[in-house]
Specification:
alpha+beta; globular; single chain; Lambda Exonuclease, Chain A
Length: about 200
């Protein structure tokens, strides 16, 4: 048996190029994801302020989870697949929306531990995003379907744990107050306007 590295193929570079093309395919303008990332980088610079951005291989795993499941579960559970909407000039791309239940559907893939309370600060950036979607769609409810790639890190010793979805195999039904939605959106709008002013001055 012989194994030779394909040195003419840089998988990470190919993923970065693909993800850049994916970003270019979105509508031109301000997107809520970039606004939230900037807020998160200011709140937790050690975690979100790293140069080079998100690891492209991990990011691709998240995109696959979102893309595939928005297609598969849309058929199985009767909700719309990914759709792009705009609120106050800011674009948002929902993984899905159930018109029957009038709920936002959001898929996530993460290396964070499933032991963390879903309401904790660890997931603040998820909730900022989901609350923005809820406000735009006129609902206070969302179905959050995360895959924890390393489970609860329960095995230890370099063995992270079994991948799992949600809590004990069940997604979460998130309910937010109207006040939470409004305050979250005000924060996002302030940040977006700051970004617009900085870009105009550059």
């Amino acid at each position: 048996m012989e194994a030779t590295l394909l040195l003419d193929i840089d998988f990470e570079a190919e993923l970065r190029a693909y993800q850049e093309r994916r970003s270019r395919d979105r509508s031109k303008g301000r997107h809520v994801s970039e606004v939230i990332h900037r807020i998160a980088a200011r709140l937790e610079p050690a975690r979100f302020g790293k140069k080079g951005g998100i690891d492209p291989v991990l990011a691709q795993g998240g995109f696959l989870w979102e893309d595939v499941w928005s297609q598969v579960l849309a058929r199985q559970f009767g909700h719309n697949k990914q759709l792009e909407i705009m609120e106050d000039g800011i674009f948002m791309t929902l993984d899905g929306f159930s018109a029957k239940r009038w709920r936002v559907i959001e898929y996530k893939a993460t290396k964070m531990s499933a032991r963390n309370d879903i309401r904790s600060r660890k997931f603040l950036h998820w909730h900022m995003q989901i609350m923005a979607y809820c406000l735009a769609m006129g609902t206070t409810e969302a179905e959050l379907v995360p895959i924890f790639l390393n489970g609860s890190y329960e095995l230890g010793g370099g063995k992270f744990g079994k991948p799992c979805v949600g809590k004990d195999g069940h997604p979460w039904l998130m309910r937010y107050t109207k006040r939470e939605l409004v305050e979250n959106w005000r924060m996002i709008l302030r940040e977006a306007r700051d970004m617009d002013r900085e870009e105009a001055a550059a």
